[in-house]
Each structure stands twice: as C-alpha cells, then as structure tokens.
Design goal:
- The chain has 343 residues and is an alpha/beta fold.
- The chain has a domain of 240 residues: 3-Layer(aba) Sandwich (Rossmann fold).
- Helix content is 40%, strand content 16%.
- The chain is built from twelve helices and 15 strands.
- The strands form five sheets. Strands 3-2-1-4-5-7-12 form a seven-stranded parallel beta sheet, sandwiched between helices. The chain has a two-stranded parallel ribbon with strand order 6-15. Strands 8-11 form a two-stranded parallel sheet.
- Helix 3 links the parallel strand 4 and strand 5.
- Helix 3 runs parallel beside helix 4.
- The longest helix is centred in the middle third of the chain and has 20 residues.
- It is globular and about 60 Å long.
C-alpha cells in the first residue's frame, strides 16, 4: 500500500512508520523536519506544514494514497483542511484521536468503543471530540472514508512515563538519587500503559481495511496496573528505591492548571480498556510488551548515552513545590477532635 503519515517521527508514530516499511509498504511522511528523526527505515520525507491545505492537496493529487494517517490533527479546523484535501483522493483517512475522549467522570471503569464521549475537564480531549464529530458529519455529507483510532498513554523506547514529572529522565534521576517523586491521588487508581510497538500492530492492521471505514477503535495494552505499581516498575528497572509522595490531583491542578486537565480529565480516573473490537478487526493484535519489559528498554536507552540523561530543572522545581505544599498542608491540619466517651 501507499501510505502517508502526517507526522511520522514522534513518540508513537515512529514505531508505526517503521512497521509499515518492514511490511513492505510505500511510506511517505510529512512534518516540519524540526525534530531529530529516530527512523531507521527508508521513507520519502516531505518537509512542510501539516496545516498547509495546498501542500496536502498537492500530495493527494500527486499520489493516490491508500491510507492517510494523521498524527498531527488536534483541532476541527485542521480536520477540515484534511477533508478538503483528501476527499475523493484516498481510500481511508485515519484520525489519531485519544482515549481521553471517553466520558469523565467515569461511570464504568471498563471502557468500550460504545462508552459515551464527554470530557468537561480537559480542553485537549474536547477538541479531539469536536474533530471526531466533524469527521462523522463528513461521512454523512460526502462519504468521507474516515477511521478514528484512540490511543491511551502510549510510550516509546525513549520515554519514561509519569503522571506528573515529564517523560524524560527527570523522574528516574530523582529515584536514583533517593529523592521522592509525586504520585497523584492515593496511587490505587487503575491505569494502562501501552508500548508504541504494540500499538503499531493494531494500527497497521486497520490500514487498507474497508471494514474499518466509519469505525472508531481504541488500541491499548491489556495489562492493568495501579499508578503506585507503575512507579514501582520504573524504580525496579532503574535499580532504585521508590519514594512516593501522594498528592491530591485537585491540588496539583490548582497549582499547575495546564497539567490539571490531563489529571482530572484522564489520569486521575481508573480505566480499563476492552480491546475486543480491535482484535475482531485485527486478529494478530496482542499487546505483548509488559510494562516491565518496556521500562527496561527505555532506561537502557537513557543509560546508553550520558547525553540523554538530562534533567528538566523546571520539572524538578514543580515536583519540589508540590511536595513541599502537600507536606505543609498536612502539617498545618488541626488534629482530629477527641472521640466522645461512650455511654
């Protein structure tokens, strides 16, 4: 197949592009060329703006792509640009949305594609919902051949996932120096971490599949962990002792509103994804990478080159501030009143 990836060198998309090339597909990627590429696969790279409608149309007119995969669409006007460029010029437009679109507060912790989409807490999720709605209208109006794919927290071999603290080496550095890290909430909420290489298998299986047109899918791991267990896995992979400070998500959101959406609108809730639908459409899909295996690879990548082990000073300041305020609030809390004597 001839495939066009809008993006293609990011945390998730790199694995998808590499698997597509490995399977013999003819791959073109479009991005701004500003981020260093980790791609080891030969692809046709076009440097340009994803929001340049004229460029998208020229690409579509120059090559009939069997599938276009959009990792860079975040707002309805961007989706509109894609609809205008690719209507009648591709057999499938795959919009990479997010599993954060599913309803919050969570009504039932097991999520299926039939779970309603509604998220009053996070603007990012609301914009993705609006994008999906625009695609459904385009399907009704002009039979636009969309497929929606919703990843949850998906990490590549250069990421160390965390709920608060970034995805770089910062959290591991603190662990190895015996410094505490922040865990939002009490650490018992359920969560799912998905390796990008596993996600890629699900995504590639949908490309060129006419049954997937007009459908929505989430693609996640089936391994369910608490957030405390997630940090425990990272600490063991780093050879460090885990020191956690549990901080209410509301407090973190009040201090850093730009982080509040991803907590109150996503990570603070227990979620377990039912992957039955993606397995029906892509029988080969299985999330085979355990989080422990994934973290061993990620930390090995950082350890392989000292230049990669950079620490984000702003993240450190935020972590220290949240911990200090949390401990201060606990110390300032008045003691509980004595129990009334029993009669």
């Amino acid at each position: 197949m001839k495939l066009l990836f809008l993006g293609g060198t990011g945390n998730i998309s790199t694995a998808c592009v590499e698997l597509a090339v490995e399977r013999g597909h003819d791959v073109t990627i479009l991005n701004r060329g500003r981020s260093p590429s980790r791609l080891r696969a030969p692809v046709r790279a076009v440097v340009g703006e994803r929001d340049d409608g004229g460029l998208l149309r020229r690409l579509a007119e120059g090559t009939r792509f069997d599938s276009v995969v959009d990792f860079l669409g975040y707002r309805p006007e961007q989706v509109e640009t894609a609809i205008e460029a690719f209507t009648g010029r591709t057999s499938q437009y795959v919009f990479i949305s997010t599993a954060a679109v599913y309803e919050k507060p969570v009504v039932h912790y097991v999520i299926t594609e039939a779970t309603p989409v509604r998220n009053p807490f996070w603007e990012y999720a609301r914009q993705k919902i609006a994008c999906e709605e625009r695609l459904r209208r385009a399907r009704q109006e002009s039979a636009f051949p969309f497929t929606v794919v919703r990843p949850s927290y998906t990490y590549g071999p250069t990421w160390i996932p965390s709920g608060f603290g970034g995805q770089d080496y910062t959290v591991v550095d603190r662990m190895r120096r015996g410094r505490p890290i922040v865990c939002h909430g009490d650490g018992t909420s359920l969560w799912v971490m998905t390796a990008a290489s596993d996600f890629a298998v699900g995504l590639l299986g949908l490309l060129g599949n006419p049954r997937a047109v007009g459908e929505s899918f989430h693609i996640t791991s089936d391994e369910v962990l608490t957030w405390e267990a997630i940090y425990g896995v990272i600490a063991r992979a780093a050879g460090a002792e885990l020191k956690l400070v549990h901080v209410p998500s509301d407090l973190i959101a009040s201090l850093y509103p730009e982080r509040g959406g991803s907590l109150l609108g996503d990570k603070a809730w227990s979620v377990v994804f039912d992957n039955a639908k993606i397995r029906r459409f892509v029988p080969e899909f299985r999330a085979r990478t355990t989080f422990a295996e994934g973290m061993a690879r990620s930390i090995a990548w950082f350890d392989a080159d000292p230049a990669r082990r950079t620490v984000n000073d702003e993240s450190v300041r935020r972590i220290e501030r949240v911990i200090a305020l949390s401990w201060g609030a606990l110390a300032a809390r008045p003691p509980d009143p004595p129990l009334a004597p029993r009669e």
